[in-house]
Specification:
The chain is of the alpha/beta class and about 270 residues long. It is built from nine helices and seven strands, in the order ααβαβααααβαβαβββ. Helix 5 packs across helix 6. The radius of gyration is 18 Å and the shape is globular.
Amino acid sequence: MTEEEAGTPSSYRPPLTRRRTRATVRGMSLAYSGGKNYTIKRHGMDKFWHGYLASVPVKRFVDVFCGGGAVSAHIAQTRPDLALVCNDLHPAAIAVLRGASQEGFVPPATLPEAEFDVLRARAAMGEMSPLIGFAGFGCTHGSVYFSGYARPHKSQRDKSAAAAVSLVRDAQHLARADFHNLDYTALPNVVGVRPGDVWYADKPYEGTTGYKGVPKFDHPRFWRWAVELSEIVPVLVSEFAAPAGWRKIWSCTRKLESRGGTREDCVFVADRT
């Protein structure tokens, strides 16, 4: 789906604003707490994916925790030959990605705070829609689901406008994705495990703030699942550290916005040597 088909002209650019009634942006894509937008664009993860996927006989890429869709959109754009599965347990993440890429949802160019509050109240009552997902992640402070409306600072772009442009841009690449809203343990039974698969798990990092709207993450349970799956297909895991039996194949040093300081962000694979 092109930007014109989505209802947003390709020449559209979000306006600068100094008013304190619109959300502002620090990133360049629809943000998601723990997402890989900047890791891809600024820390060389794009080159990692290019090299790794060229080195294995891959036919399908399974993004187990797709979040805001940064990795999926990058893979879809750079490897159009691959089948793509996008899964996340958070229903709002899947609602907004599927809505924009496959269901004709056009994100608003701006989202006033009053409307943000209405959508947050509707989400709290259990309602879900692409617009609620867009507001909850794209227009919120720190990109943590409905943590609070992101008010502007001087000379920064309207966050909802920037998020809208990025979502429309990425949607055209995700139009062919197979979306699912499942616990990761259920995903293999639903989509199958095939020869030529690469499964990527950008799980919630241990020791970091969990995700509002989903259960607390069980890290030991995840690693047991990943070990079993890695006996069949390659399983790549993003984390700060991994248990014994996992080998680091890529890393970068990045800032931790929530806690300050820096940390080595890694991708691990099961060590079968």
